[in-house]
User: Fold this.
Amino acid sequence: MKKQKQKCKCDKCNCQFNPDGTTNVRFTPESFMRVVGLDFYHYGNNDKWWLHSWGNVYPIHKHIYGDENFSYEDYLGKNDWIDYNYGVMFGWNITKKFGIFTEYEKSKCWDKDLMCLKDGLNWQL
Assistant:
């Protein structure tokens, strides 16, 4: 019995794919990207608190090898889209071995907007 092709789950295209087709791909698509970025670190009050912020831009993408049918460059028809990532992290050392932190990060990669907000505990063993 021949398997039915399934519809793509993305909302931008109406393509179909064979769920077993990816097992025949010999190489995964590999891409080359250039990055331009900045980082800023600050430690204050005798290392009681710290701040880290960053920003990165990925302006150039180039498919290197692998099946181009599975590359984002082939999907868009161009290799000059812009991805980015930026964020800020703040931490407070309550004692020498214990601290807390919070982090916010925003990214846009392959036309997907991602946002992440974290907080947590730091415990040095």
User: Anything to note?
Assistant: The chain has a mean pLDDT of 78. The first strand starts at residue 6 and ends at 7. Helices lie at 72-76.
